[in-house]
Structures are given as C-alpha cells and as structure tokens.
Design goal:
1 helix; 55% helix; mainly alpha
Amino acid sequence: MQVGKPCHLTLAVPDETTSSNATSYATKVFQRLLANWAQDLLLLRKKQELRSVTSGASIREPGTLDKAA
C-alpha cells in the first residue's frame, strides 16, 4: 500500500489512494462480521430446532384428541 502526502498538512486528511484502500478494507471487514453474525444465528436456530425435535415430543395419530386439552 503506497502512502502519499496528505491532502491537507494541518488536518492530515489522507490522500485518495489511502482513503480508497481504507474504504475497501472497512467494507471487507464489515461483510465478514455480518457473515459471522448470520452464521452464529443459523447455528443457534439449528440447535434450538434439534433440541425441540429431540425433547421427547410424542407423535399422535391423526384424529386423536389430547386429554390435557
């Protein structure tokens, strides 16, 4: 990454190349963060679904009524 002179010496505003590289890097990091967050949510949902399926829920035949109802 080539770093040029700042556009404004007193304010130290970065040049166009540095600004463009920083924007590109920030975009990639943000996309990776969102992907990891979405993956965590999907894994949590999968665990919850597996837990509800394996929690011992009984399968009743069609047409039978639940006595507790």
